Amino acid sequence: MVCSRIRTAVSARLDGERLPPGVTAGQLAAHLKGCAACRLWEVRARQLTEYIERLGESDTALGTDAGGRPAQPS
Ligand SMILES: [Zn+2]
User: What's the 54 CA to ligand 1 centre distance in angstroms?
Assistant: First the structure.
């Protein structure tokens, strides 16, 4: 299995999408077990995904929160 196909599958899985044709969950797991480069790639891709999700959440919070700034003691 080629690394680029595995990474496409990892990315799809992180996004909650279906695995691309020709890549099964078993093949994905087996490749990640044996390929440190793809494991590292998955960690980074997951961190990026979580970061983007947090950005989305804070955008929502800013939109609903009337105050915005924390109160400063004077
Ligand atoms: Zn790989």
Answer: 28
**What's the full length of the chain, in residues?**
74
- CA 44 – ligand 1 centroid, Å: 14
pLDDT by 10s per residue, the chain, length 74? 899 999 999 999 998 999 999 999 999 999 999 999 999 999 999 999 999 889 988 766 555 555 566 667 77
Q: Encoding tokens for residue 64?
A: 């609903």
Can you read off the two tokens belonging to residue 21? 């044709």
Q: Is the pTM of this model over 0.90?
A: no
Q: Which two tokens stand for residue 47?
A: 């961190």
